[in-house]
Amino acid sequence: MPEDRDWEAYKVPPTRTPVSERTTSVPNPITFFQTVFNYVIDAPVTFVREWIERQQAKNKFYYYHQKFRRVPDLSECLEGDYLCFFEAEAQWRRDRMVDQEIVEIVRERLGACKQREGPNQFQNCAKEMEQLAQVTKAYQDRYGDLGVHGNARTCLMKQKHRMMEERKAQANASQ
């Protein structure tokens, strides 16, 4: 390439583009409508929303920590007290769902430990395996063999029969 460049052939673009100033006596209608919208609609709505948020911030309600009161067990209900029977059944169903979730959480923890440890899972996950065995045994003792249509009454009867068998086995062992 030659040393002497032809600057006229390769013109450099201007460094600043000139801005055209538009001056008229008529105001821009868009800015007028924006100002009206901000003062008539947006400002009151924003004020009301901020006021409500301040009121809610004073007394927070954590809905996900709802605690139900414990109702009497089915064994504590009087004969013919159907409302107590219904409440005890609802409490039993909640307890069963909680126990199912506990078993599922312990099972997920064991699966995560096995995935993390790989071939060393039998040594390093022994605590989780023991915990899962205890939790599933407790769940099986309480809710096992009830079937799909299990309810609080059949569960109570199952526990009563198990306690009677344990007492009978204990009496036979002491003789």
From TrEMBL:
Ligase is among the record's keywords: no
InterPro entries named among the record's database cross-references: NADH_UbQ_OxRdtase_su10, NDUFB10
A Pfam short name: NDUFB10
Annotated family: Belongs to the complex I NDUFB10 subunit family.
PANTHER family found in the cross-reference section: NADH DEHYDROGENASE [UBIQUINONE] 1 BETA SUBCOMPLEX SUBUNIT 10, NADH-UBIQUINONE OXIDOREDUCTASE PDSW SUBUNIT
Function: Accessory subunit that is involved in the functional assembly of the mitochondrial respiratory chain complex I. Complex I has an NADH dehydrogenase activity with ubiquinone as an immediate electron acceptor and mediates the transfer of electrons from NADH to the respiratory chain.
Protein name: NADH dehydrogenase [ubiquinone] 1 beta subcomplex subunit 10
Lineage: Eukaryota, Metazoa, Chordata, Craniata, Vertebrata
